[in-house]
């Protein structure tokens, strides 16, 4: 629909796009510059540099970020956790030990939908926890052949494959929120999903710490996989700069009032410093603290699964490989690693 509107010279004023989509439209000269607004509003000092570069095209701001989602969250049904006398795992070995406790109690350890994007979401959390932020960048973002062919990736792929036995086998196409409902209802103990899943818990009347635990995924406490939703501005007429209406929208989105109101409703956190976090729930406050710490420690990493890092072709290829590893028991982690390495030659 967007392509047809661009072709007919009826471009919308703004469209929600992910970072890797911006270059496609920038190459076609379809995006309007927000540099005048950005300079006047001091965006360079408000938006973390890494994220700022992802809402720019050839050095010019072309989109305005509305929020930050954290992907590497582990949700646990607190009542089931108390039943097995467990605690939130900090490492992957601890995760598997806790899963064994749940299995012995007759509880499905892991709620998971099995759709391709969900599998890649799970895998990137595993890769981060096994190898850390620097490894994540080299292997998943930069697609470095040496990192992909090495022993750390071997452990990550094997760990991911072993998780399959912890989830219900009969749900290859379950939606993410249906998997969340399993945890809410006590039919499964844990789910790894971005913070949009928190909204399902809250809508069901559950409270953080009382009914569910929100914890960093194993090995990921010091790192932060992020997704940023942003509104890209499209050129109207022959001028390269945003129109007055587009500039007004961008200023509104980057206001403290908008950032607070929108993110309270969305379940994400503000991209701006200075927003009063008092009205936010405990999980959001923790996410905000982790975001700031990861920014200072240079352990913010973009989500590959949610189109913040890879161009469409390598993204689809990696998603297909990870999906096959999850759904085909005959396809081993060693084969997946070999195929991934070979595809880079």
What descriptive keywords fit this protein?
single chain; 345 residues; alpha+beta; four-stranded mixed beta sheet; three-stranded antiparallel beta sheet; 12 strands
Structural overview:
With 345 residues, this protein is an alpha+beta fold. Helices cover 50% and strands 12% of the residues. The chain contains 17 helices and twelve strands. It has helices at residues 2-7, 19-27, 35-41, 43-46, 49-52, 78-83, 92-104, 116-141, 145-149, 151-163, 176-184, 198-203, 244-253, 256-266, 282-297, 312-327, 333-343; strands at 14-17, 56-57, 60-61, 63-65, 69-70, 73-77, 108-110, 188-192, 212-216, 224-227, 230-233, 300-302. Strands 7-8-6-9 form a four-stranded mixed sheet. A three-stranded antiparallel sheet has the order 1-11-4. A hairpin with a 2-residue loop joins strand 2 and strand 3 (60-61). Helix 8 crosses helix 16 (312-327), helix 10 crosses helix 17 (333-343) and helix 16 packs antiparallel against helix 17 (333-343). The chain is globular and about 65 Å long. The two termini are 36 Å apart. The mean pLDDT is 95.
